Amino acid sequence: MIGSRRQILFRKALLWIALILGACFAGLPVVWMVSSSFKSNLEIFAYPPALIDYSFSFDAYLAVLGDPGQLRFFFNSYLVAILVTICTVVTSILAGYSFSRYDFRFKKVLNLIIIGVQSVPPITLMIPYFGLIVWLGIYNSYTALVLTYMVFTLSYAIIMMTGYFNTLPRDLDEAVMIDGGGSFVTLWRILVPISLPGIVAVGVYTFMLAWNEFLFALTLTRTNDMRTVPIGIHLLMGQHSFEWNQMLALSVLGSLPVLILFLLFQRYFIAGMSAGSVKG
Amino acid sequence: MSIAAQRDISEPANIGWEQKKRKLLPYGYLSPTLLLLAALTVIPIGTVFLYSLVDNVIVNPNPPVFVGLENYEEVLTNRKFRGALSNTLYFSIVSVVVHFIIGLSFALLLNSRLLSANVKAVFRVIYILPWVFTASIIAILWRLLLNPHGVVNFMLLELGIIPELNEWLSDRKLALNAVTFINIWSGYPFYMVSFLAGLQGIPDDLYESGRVDGGNAWQLFRHITLPQLRPIIISLALLDFIWTIHQFTLIWMTTGGGPLRSTEVLSTYTYKAAFSSHEYSIASTIAMVILAICTFVAIFYVRSQRMTDE
Q1: Structure confidence by residue, pLDDT tens digits, A150-171
Q2: Which of B140, B235, B277 to mutate to test the interface with A (most CBs of A within 10 A)?
Q3: pTM for this one?
Q4: pLDDT of A26-63, one tens digit each?
Q5: For site-directed labelling of A226, which of A71, A142, B40, B153 has its Cα 20 to 30 A away?
Q6: Residue of B nearest to A270 (CA)
Q7: Cβ separation of A94 and B33 shorter than 8 Å?
Q8: How far is A96 from chain B (nearest CA, A)?
Q9: Could you tell me if residue A104 is inside a domain?
């Protein structure tokens, strides 16, 4: 079934046309966003549009980076995302260990509940959360965001950690147990160090979910000094004068952390995505 | 023979305690998870359900009154709710179908044997790009592109595809399709990545024997590729359907449900009922309806997961 050279050439040409069309569909909107962030606000919708025009400058970026209010959004986003990541990783290691290494009465049911949590709509939880968080006295605090974000990061993290532990042979644990180590020692001394790739995958993915969260950040915080980047963008949009270039600069800067993580840990991201669990 | 059992025999006095400890240990490891899920999932869902059965909750000065299923009757017969429901279904079904088509096409392109590994790696990054951005940034991005004076209108006008400038996001007839398109753009990479993994898992022998039997490319695709990907397709579609049903941010930040409720979906409708009109009972009722729809789909998802596990 090997075609002639011409046939292969023809197929290759078609393939490349399709590839480039696809790349335009995926990439051009992003290129346009980045290029617009370097324009002046007046030139954003200039006719005819140009990718780069005379108004090219870093003004919008300087405006964002020079505004303590907007830098605060970044600080909040980093802090919350890092805290969520640490808490999720630790909790999911413990839970994954339990699911992978023990048989217990409610194992199946609990496993089912954890898978099921992924399909609970955030909007359903939002109404009671509001009351619950106010009642707990943690409205407008980092604690509120970390706890509520974990509801959605945890279930997929546990599924991934359990899957990872399942790939490790049980002989490893038994060897430690014979030496007199308890199950906790086995977990931290043996399983955790060799599970590093799995833990990184969970961590990177969790960070991304937390960095992108919108609904809870919108409803559970009130003052601007507690807002995260996505909400900051929302606030800029609500202002009277649309500062398009600043909004876009904030968007580009707000995408960088995830983009960098993605490029560095592509493999782990893809592992996370195809684990068939969670998207942002 | 496990170590613990041997120890039990040698220390008979401790049998009860050791056994209990072994039984409780897995729950101990799970305790942080269970605590969090109980406090932030089980109890809240119970609360929403209770709210949906009473009137005058939270902000009303009158004491709450138990009204049974009255709120459900009110919601389900409401025209606005039905509009939001049909918008949600349209938005979700079209998204899922097109996600599948684009995701599979791109995966097949990237899986071609005619391309070198480096070319594949570069295009893979480009194709995943939309997925890296968070919903509020995707909203800004497309509000920029779809602005009446934006670059999309300019290009379509120059190419003669549209006769006049379109108000994509503020025209009642176009807005729902526009937000659906945006959601398609942002969601297909998830499919693509999963399909790529799936395609790489299909053994070459299958294709070899297919070719020996004289199958052409289309037949190979229909009778080998699609059936092999079937479990992935089913679980992806169900999961995506659930996520799209509760998509909030994208619509909230592009159209806010407007113009004239033409893009109102269940989640934006719930949000408005709760935080704009302060009708918490009604909002809770709609929230329960969304939960019911998602649970219904999730049951099929869990089943399909089990089937692939076994």
Answers
A1: 998 998 899 888 888 888 888 8
A2: B140
A3: 0.88
A4: 999 999 999 999 988 888 887 788 888 888 888 889 98
A5: B40
A6: B193
A7: yes
A8: 8
A9: yes
The CATH number corresponding to B70-309 among 3.40.50.2000, 3.90.180.10, 3.40.50.2020, 1.10.3720.10 equals 1.10.3720.10
Indicate the Cα dihedral angle A201, A204, A205, A208, nearest 10°: -170
Query: By the CB < 8 Å criterion, does B234 face chain A?
Result: no
Interface residue B181 vs chain A (CB under 8 A):
no
Using an 8 Å CB-CB cutoff, list chain B residues near A129.
40, 44
CA-nearest residue to B137 within chain A is A251
Q: Note whether A248 contacts B140, CB cutoff 8 Å.
A: yes
Q: Which chain A residue shows the shortest CA-CA distance from B127?
A: A26
- The verdict on A102 touching B (C-beta cutoff 8 Å) is yes
Residue A197 identity = P
For residue B21, what pLDDT is reported? 76
Determine the structural domain holding residue A130 and report its residue range: 60-274
The enclosing domain of A85 has a CATH number of 1.10.3720.10
CB–CB contact B133 A255 (8 Å): yes
The per-residue pLDDT for A149 is 93
B296 reaches A (C-beta below 8 A)? no
pLDDT, tens digit, for every residue of B53-83? 988 766 666 777 788 888 898 888 888 999 9
Chain B positions touching A147 (Cβ under 8 A) are 36, 40
CB proximity A42 to B under 8 Å: no
Tell me if chain B has a CB within 8 Å of the CB of A266.
yes
Do B187 and A248 lie within an 8 Å CB cutoff? no
The residue extents of the domains of chain B are 3-66, 70-309
Helices B175-200/A5-36 angle, 10° precision: 130
pLDDT tens across the length of chain A (280 residues): 455 788 888 888 999 999 999 999 999 999 999 999 998 888 888 778 888 888 888 888 998 888 888 899 999 999 999 999 999 999 999 999 999 888 888 888 888 888 888 889 999 998 888 888 888 889 988 989 999 999 989 988 998 888 888 888 888 777 777 776 677 877 887 888 888 888 988 898 899 889 989 999 998 998 888 999 999 888 888 776 678 888 899 999 999 988 998 888 887 777 666 554 433 2
